[in-house]
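Quick illustration, no need to memorize.
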Amino acid sequence: MKEILQELLIGLKAGNKLENLKKNLCKKYKLEKLPTNIEILEELNDEQKEFYKKFLVTKPVRTMSGVAPLAIMTKPLACKHGKCTFCPGGPKSIFGDVPQSYTGNEPSTMRAIRANYDPYLIVFNRLEQYILLNHIPDKTEVIIQGGTFCSFPEEYQEEVIKYTLKAMNDFSEIFFKNKNFNFSKFKEFFELPGTIKDAERICRIHEKLLKIKGKADLEKEQLRNETAKVRSTALVIETKPDWCKQNEINEILKLGTTRVELGVQTLKDKILKITNRGHTLKDTKEAIQLLKDSFLKTTFHIMPGLPESTHEEDILMFKELFDNSNYKPDSLKVYPCLVMPGTPLFLQYQKGEFKPLTTEEAADIISEGKRFVPEYCRIMRINRDIPSTVIKDGVMNTNLRQIVENKIIKKGIKCRCIRCREPMGKEIDYNHVELKKFYYDSSGGKEVFISIEDTKKDILLGFCRLRKPYKPFRPEITSDSAGVRELHVYGQAIPLGEKGLVQHKGYGKKLMEEAERIAKEEWKCHKILVISGIGVREYYKKLGYSREGSYMSKKL
């Protein structure tokens, strides 16, 4: 392997393409298969890895938006209201004891099962994978999955978060020294080269981790994470509108939450009732207003193709989402309704009482819906991450987003959602970079979407969401307060303090200065607050902000 590796590195240094080198070396040495990038990385020393990492980055889309997602699956717990008619999974489901709304076959669920749903072990495993994919996981978005998080016992909610943070903090202390990552120590600890199929290796690593896990204190781990090498720049939880009242919001703010994924699903009370959602449209509207007035970001889950909804009504749902000021989400996840075994909906399907959307129908609805999506919303996901082998009927294609994108090109639809305008490695014309503002009303309050864009190529480089609230209930948010609900600058994730394609060009500071100006001059506010990720508090301190409850605050 050393001889093959040496030839490969010489070839890369000479400017040859990686895949061509692999194929040629495979023929020369009669290898059974091409070595993967991860296998190559595992054989490199620290100095070689630093030089050759630019050639060996895999799955760059994972961190292209500037942060590395870190999904933590919670243990199987039933929803308090029962089960929605379309929902798979949960305790004692046809798939066994798995998290609510999951099947046990999703990557994040399988990772959690291997770790016995221990967040500490899950985080170490995921960070190990990022390093092996040659990604830099120092800015992470922690996404808590597994059902209605706010309905879980508060002690368990806290346990998940504090051990997630402790794992990030401990990983930082063990493998980073100043700015440098100790790859040799990392390889030794994780017994690399290795594979997840080696059960004995996994068991040994888990034993090591459980010895250092110890006890965790939430406030202590939050404080450690503010300056850790691997930081939580965002924390996301999932919940239903009936589990998103003042008490629930107070609890998730204490944990450090910055974004809430809300199970909206439909804008019709009749459909909510027949699918046993356990809440009304009134609950949905109230939850949205409370979240936004607490300066939390909102992602709606919507589900085209539910029982008693037509093709036309599903398209109009997109229009209603952005025409009606009670909704106006910051981002969307669009999950066409699937027929899953073991669900009440499957029984209706067997009786001929329900027919799911085909891939073609779902793609047509979503492509038409994109006509109504404004520039301040990001379509984060299209279709569930469920293997088609366990779906009984519905959208069986895993590439639904690609099919939708092909349709909008054929239809001549120009989608201006955030995701469609992110840099994603595109070439930027900095001579045409401008600051823009989009004002709109939302849930009784006022919003402005401030952006920095390459106006010539319609590329979004960064943005800020500023809100003047309607009826805030948090003590920090006074009548003369405005709040930044999100600040994001795009570009592939790069180490904190270093230069990158878009990040760290000072755009974040420019966006904040404009937000402060609008709050003070246009809205006559005397204070501005920021819903800040734990690991970004240091950044806001440099801009003159200080800690006030769950927020960073500054007098204007």
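The radius of gyration is 24 Å.
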